[in-house]
Amino acid sequence: MSIPKEHSDTAAAWEVTAAIYEREEAEDIVLLKQGNNRLLAPERERLGNLRPWCRRAIHLQCAGGVDTLALWQLGAAEVVGIDISPRMLVSAKQRSAAVGAPATWYCCDVLATPPQFDGTADLVYTGKGALPWMMDLGAWAAVVQRLLQPGGRLYVFEGHPLDWVWDFTAASYQFDPRTGDYFSQSPLTNRGWPMLSDAVQAHPAKDELRVHEHQWTLGQLLNSLVEAGLQLEHFAEYPDLYWNQFPHLPPDLARRLPHTFGLLMRKP
Ligand SMILES: C[S@@+](CC[C@H](N)C(=O)[O-])C[C@H]1O[C@@H](n2cnc3c(N)ncnc32)[C@H](O)[C@@H]1O
Asked: Which residue of 133, 158, 243 sits with most ligand 1 atoms within 8 Å of its CB, as the best mutation to test the pocket?
């Protein structure tokens, strides 16, 4: 599998951004120990009780692992978190050790997830800022397909691609001059997060850091998974934001358009 060259740039910037996830470790551990998590209501509702059917959940692009451990809380017997950033996974390991969760953390490019995980997942979970870093969606869908065992499910809860077109500094819906085309197929370098994070801004080599983002349309996402052999079980769009990406947009205006979506698919 050839890895798009942009992925290594993006990985270096996320490695720096891991500082933010490290800062949240203590708070996350308290939250998890209390039996709480950071999943959004639509995710919790759709995933429900995992105990009857999920032995292993694999979280692709798991970052600090807080949502991976939420899957364990929902009933997955064991969880695997995969991410390209070693520092993110050290942070994830702190969380799982603190709560005594049966978790395995594996560092690699998603597209290079090793065959040892093939056919082992009852659930593959991903999203909340994961897909735009993939430069090859067909290759990503093929990885999901091979990780799932027959009958296994993929759940994606991701930022809605329509959000890509809006100017995130505006107080109303205005097209961003760089990204205001939903159908544009050009990846963009250093659009916003995580380059605007204090972790990146404080980094001595910040001017050498680059992230490359590709906003895939909903049609491209669905078709990539159908072409990989998965079947649609449920798809929904939500007005909920999963992070504060439009700090100046009044909440009543924000909720008139979708900002997230949930996609549940099954491997026959
Ligand atoms: C916005 S974070 C995802 C956060 C995660 N959904 C959560 O809620 O905790 C993006 C993550 O994708 C990872 N990542 C980016 N490109 C990747 C790649 N090619 N392979 C694996 N992980 C990647 C980054 O290291 C980072 O941890």
From this structure: 133
Q: Tell me: the pLDDT tens digits for 14-38?
A: 999 999 999 999 999 999 999 999 9
Question: Could you give the CA distance from residue 180 to residue 194 in angstroms, rounded to a whole number?
Answer: 20
C-alpha–C-alpha distance, residues 250 and 235, integer Å:
27
- Domain extent at residue 101: 6-266
Looking from the CA of residue 110, the nearest atom of ligand 1 is 20
Q: Domain with 188 in it: what CATH number?
A: 3.40.50.150
Q: Is residue 90 part of a domain?
A: yes
1 domain residue, yes or no: no
Q: For the segment 189-218, what is each residue's pLDDT rounded down to a tens digit?
A: 998 889 988 898 989 999 999 999 999 999
